[in-house]
Specification:
273 residues; alpha+beta; six-stranded antiparallel β-barrel; 15 strands
Length: 273
């Protein structure tokens, strides 16, 4: 009886944490785009819109972050023990409720599922502005690398990102299409946007030096709800983490990503990568 009560209490704590962990911003979990604020504000966590199906071997660093067995966000493999995702994906969520699926093009089956041992959010993360939207996940067991499970290359501290380079964002988020399923991994190719144009789109104070934008002026291709925490890769390096935006693939509103080079030293100091 005591064991049953303890299990019920653990589930109750996890459910309360899940409710408290729903940010009111854009890219992020499925059903929101912080993909989590109203469309006129930061929306954290998106799905891939205007993209195409890919195989996990095309992006072997991609992972699906699960909360109690349901896809919640994306993430990127740094080494056999550490994953990088967005802080808004883990904020207020107990580590024992999280798992990571690697090596599968499907977020709900195949591949390998690994327990999360510890969540380390960036200490400067601000849920109201979505600044410093980074979280490191330490895995309970080491990953075994293969053709479908590989670490992603990282930039150096403060390494610049050129304007207009083509990048790839991937994930299992909302496609905003009744004919395009998000059961299988999808990707979209989007160009980076200058910091000046990004700030003009979202207001000067909304875009910090820890953020970068990517997308087309006419819209049509973007991450969306459920893609949060996932990778934005350019020139073979992880340059961004899906973070927030206004709606999904809207004209004049590029996707906003957490700039990986801004916290490269923090990643190294805490993960050894």
């Amino acid at each position: 009886m005591a064991n049953k009560i303890a299990i019920l209490l653990s589930v109750l704590v996890a459910l309360v944490a899940f409710v408290q962990a729903q940010p009111s911003q854009r890219h992020g979990f499925v059903g929101s785009y912080h993909k989590f604020l109203p469309e006129t504000s930061h929306t954290v966590g998106h799905r891939i819109v205007g993209g195409f199906e890919i195989d996990i071997s095309d992006t072997p660093y991609q992972v699906s972050l699960h909360y109690i067995d349901d896809h919640r966000c994306g993430g990127s493999i740094l080494n056999s023990k550490w994953i990088l995702t967005a802080a808004h994906c883990t904020d207020g969520v107990p580590s024992f409720t999280l798992t990571v699926r690697v090596g599968s093009s499907k977020h709900a089956s195949d591949g390998t599922v690994v327990l999360v041992k510890r969540v380390m959010q960036h200490p400067a993360y601000d849920r109201s502005t979505i600044d410093y939207d980074y979280a490191l996940l330490e895995l309970k067991d080491d990953l075994t690398f293969s053709d479908v499970v590989q670490p992603v290359a990282l930039p150096e501290q403060d390494e610049p990102v050129k304007d207009g380079i083509m990048t790839t964002v991937s994930g299992w988020g909302n496609t905003q299409s009744s004919t395009e399923s998000n059961a299988v991994l999808r990707a979209a190719n989007v160009p980076t946007v200058s910091q000046q144009d990004c700030r003009m789109a979202y207001s000067q104070e909304g875009i910090t030096d820890r953020m970068l934008c990517a997308g087309y002026q006419q819209g049509g291709k973007d991450a969306c709800q459920g893609d949060s925490g996932g990778p934005l890769v350019g020139n073979g390096k992880l340059i961004g983490v899906v973070s927030w935006g206004s709606g999904c693939a809207k004209p004049s509103y590029p996707g906003v990503y957490s700039r990986v080079a801004s916290v490269r030293d923090w990643i190294r100091q805490n993960s050894g990568v």
